[in-house]
Amino acid sequence: VTLTNQGAPQSLTGWRLQSYGGSPCRPVSEQVFVFPANLTLETGASVRVHSGPQAVDKPPTDLKWTEDTVWSNNGDRADLISADGTLMTSLAYGACQ
Prior knowledge:
Elements: E1 2-4, E2 10-11, E3 16-21, E4 26-34, E5 40-41, E6 46-51, E7 62-66, E8 75-81, E9 87-94
Parallel strand pairs: 6-7
Antiparallel strand pairs: 1-6, 2-5, 3-4, 3-8, 8-9
């Protein structure tokens, strides 16, 4: 997942990515990525969150979630949730739309 900040600088402390999957499309409780403390995404900057066996961890631009496979090929959804619990954006594809 790549996030790009198109607004003012934003602290991502306490923000999280929630993965959905299966049929029906539901949150997968063990598939939640919590952004590290003190990470601020500057205007125009991007951060990539990696999962899978070749996951990369080179903060602050590349963050490793897990070496497990999070996303499926037949459909999934990711929610970006702010520290106060507000759904900021949601991306879905395939059977999980």
